[in-house]
Write a structure and sequence with these properties.
Layout lengths: L1 H19 L4 H19 L10 E5 L14 E5 L3 H7 L11 E4 L12 E7 L8 H10 L1 E14 L2 H9 L12 H9 L3 E10 L4 E10 L2
Parallel strand pairs: 1-2, 1-4, 2-3, 4-5
Antiparallel strand pairs: 5-7, 6-7
Length: about 220
C-alpha cells in the first residue's frame, strides 16, 4: 500500500498544479471559504464551535476547512504542505496566523492536545494505512469531542471491488462504501451523530459524517 500511496501523493500534487493553473488567488480563496461555510452549515447543529474550542484539520490540503476558523486555535496537517507552499501561489502559511501547520501523514501525527473538533475533509482515503489513520483521528479528540469526516463513498459493489484491483481512481488508495467508512469510526468507540450527502454521483456519493468520541 505504501507504493500506491506514494504514487497517489505524486499525482495529488500534479492534480493541484493543473487544477489551480492561473486561478486568481483572492477569488479562489473567497469561493473556497464559501464552500466550507456551506458545508459547515449542514452540520452546525451537531458541531457547535465556540471561540475557545481547539480545532484539528487533518489532511488539510492547500485550502482546507482551517480557513473558516479565524478566531480559534487551529492545527492543520498534510504530508504535502511544503510542496503546496513551494509550487502553489494560493497557499502561504503566513496567511493564517492562528493556524499551526505540520507536515505529516495522519498516521504519524502525535498531537499534544485533546482537540474539541477533528476534521478530515476528503482525505481519509488518501492515506497509506486507513485503520491506523482512523485510530489517530479519534485519539486526537477529547472525550465527547466531534470527529467530522467527508469522503467519496462507492455506490456500487462491483465498481468498489474493481477499483480495488485496478487503479481506476489513482488519487485514492482506499475504496469503500459509506457503511464501511462509518464502521471504521464505530469500532473505535465513536457514535455516528449525522451523515449528510453533500453531492450525488454515479460511482461515488460525497458524504460528510459527524461522530462523537465516547471514551
Amino acid at each position: 500500500m505504501d507504493v500506491r500511496w506514494k504514487v497517489a501523493q505524486y499525482c495529488e500534487l500534479k492534480w493541484w498544479k493543473r487544477y489551480l493553473g492561473e486561478k486568481n488567488k483572492a477569488l479562489y480563496l473567497a469561493n473556497k471559504k464559501k464552500y466550507w461555510t456551506r458545508l459547515y452549515s449542514l452540520i452546525s447543529d451537531k458541531v457547535k464551535i465556540g471561540n475557545n474550542d481547539i480545532i484539528l484539520d487533518q489532511g488539510c490540503g492547500p485550502s482546507g476547512i482551517y480557513m473558516l476558523f479565524d478566531d480559534n486555535k487551529v492545527t492543520a496537517t498534510d504530508p504535502l504542505l511544503d510542496e503546496y507552499e513551494k509550487y502553489l501561489d494560493i497557499f502561504s502559511k503566513t496567511d493564517y496566523p492562528n493556524t499551526t501547520f505540520i507536515r505529516t501523514k495522519i498516521e504519524d501525527f502525535d498531537g499534544n492536545e485533546a482537540y474539541d473538533v477533528v476534521f478530515c475533509m476528503n482525505a481519509i482515503n488518501h492515506v497509506s494505512d486507513i485503520e491506523l489513520a482512523y485510530k489517530k483521528l479519534i485519539s486526537c479528540a477529547r472525550k465527547r469531542g466531534r470527529i467530522v469526516v467527508s469522503i467519496d463513498a462507492h455506490n456500487h459493489r462491483i465498481f468498489k471491488y474493481l477499483f480495488r484491483m485496478v487503479p481506476g481512481d489513482i488519487l485514492h488508495p482506499h475504496q469503500y462504501d459509506l457503511k464501511e467508512y462509518n464502521f471504521f469510526m464505530e469500532k473505535n468507540n465513536c457514535k455516528i451523530l449525522q451523515t449528510e450527502r453533500v453531492k450525488k454521483g454515479f460511482f461515488f456519493n460525497h458524504y460528510m459524517t459527524v461522530a462523537e468520541k465516547q471514551v
